[in-house]
Every structure is written in C-alpha cells, then in structure tokens.
Amino acid sequence: MAYNEFAYFYDEFNGEADYEALYAQVKARLDAHGISSGILADLGCGTGELTLMLAQAGYDMIGIDQSEEMLCVVRDKAEQLGLSGGLLLLQQDLCALDLYGTIRGAVSTFDTLNHIPDLDKAIANAAFFMEKGGVFLFDMNTPYKHQAVLGENVFTFEEEDARCVWRNHYDPDARRVTITVDIDYQETGEHFHEEFFEYTYTLAEITAALEKNGFTLESVCDGESFGPLTEESERYFFCAVKNYTQREEQ
C-alpha cells in the first residue's frame, strides 16, 4: 500500500490526530528503557510528523515509507525545520526492509502494520535490525474498528479546493477492509482514485508474531487514550522489547 495523491492531503484529513500525546507516550517509553539518543526507524513514516518530532528530540531518524509522495512531504518539512542533515529517508516495502546497520528502536503508527498482509514478515524484519534491548513501539487498528467503525461506512472530507471520499468494505472471510479513496479537485477538475487494504489481526496473533521474532510484549493499551483497553478500543498501542539478537539466536 502506498498513499500517492492522498499524501499531499494527509495532514489536513488527519487533522484530529493528537501528535503531541503520541510523541509524549513514545518518548516516555524510550526514556524508560534508557534510549535517549541513537538511531530510530519510523516504519511507515507517512508525512513525518512523529519522525521530525523525534529528530528534534535528538534521535538519528530513518524515515521509511513505500510512498515516494509521502517522503517528498517529509523532505520538505525537514528542510523548513533545518533537519535535513540528520534524517535518512528510504522508499521501501516493510516486508523487504533493508537497513545499513542496527537500530536502537522503531516506531510504527497510524495503523501502518494493518496494511501488511504478512505481519510476521514485517515484524521479523524489524527484529533483524534491532539491537538487544531495543524497543518497538507501534499501534494497530483493532478488529472492533474494522468491523464496527469502518465496516461499510463512507467518510467525506472537504478542503478549500478538494473533496475526498473514503469508502470502506469489510470482508469477514478475508478478514480485511477494502478502502477506496477518491479525490476531486474543484479548480482543475482532476480526479484521483486509490484502493488499498487493511488486514485484521487479533491481539493473540500480534503477540504470537512478536514472541516468535524475539520480542517480549511489555504492555498494550488503548492507542488513543493510552489507558486500559476496552471492548470498544479502536486502536492498540504496543510496547515490545527485543530480548535477543539474530546472531545470538544462531
């Protein structure tokens, strides 16, 4: 999955996202594990809001996304903030992740991992490059959100010169949501259409994938309030710790 044309409107359409609260949660978890500097990877960095906040906090950030358009937005923001020199941007599929060395931790937010049909592979790749004691902080949409919130619903977003219609279809047999995004530019009359999927993973499946790849799940909470999970939580937020390196395993 790669947001293409939608990349340029992502921040406006995601305007309700509380990046400050997310950053505070991520930074507190990193600090609790003694990770106050070093290399972090943002897996599916999108337009880079969290990536750049962590870069400003002194981390050496690697922003990774499959969408060239998303990375262009990150690059523009980084230049405006004077952060270009301390930021590495890579256009990669997380199922074919290839870094140049090890990382102290990784973040992956706003349901990036739900877009991946092979969750085990994506987690294995993150584990491969992570140092022992490294922290993996990520969120994922819950089965409840896929079934009850997205479901068959349609959402419309209006901007000054553009209109975006976001349609969802949940397939219980395939355990995935088909999402179509249509963007119409009022001034030029241009129309763009994108389609992608979100895959449903249970808490037990996510935990099993982490444990299989050398992580210990330290905690999981509601990914919006950061309080306890409920039956109607729409997002999980995970904190997992790498308990051995690939070399030790071998």
From TrEMBL:
Gene3D superfamilies: S-adenosyl-L-methionine-dependent methyltransferases, Vaccinia Virus protein VP39. One of its GO terms (molecular function) is methyltransferase activity. InterPro entries: Methyltransf_25 (IPR041698), SAM-dependent_MTases_sf (IPR029063). Transmembrane segments: none annotated. It comes from the Bacteria. GO terms for biological process: methylation. Pfam families: Methyltransf_25. The keyword Methyltransferase applies. Keywords: Methyltransferase, Transferase. CDD domains: AdoMet_MTases. PANTHER family: TRANS-ACONITATE 2-METHYLTRANSFERASE, TRANS-ACONITATE 2-METHYLTRANSFERASE-RELATED. This is Methyltransferase. It comes from Faecalibacterium gallinarum. The lineage of its organism: Bacteria, Bacillati, Bacillota, Clostridia, Eubacteriales.
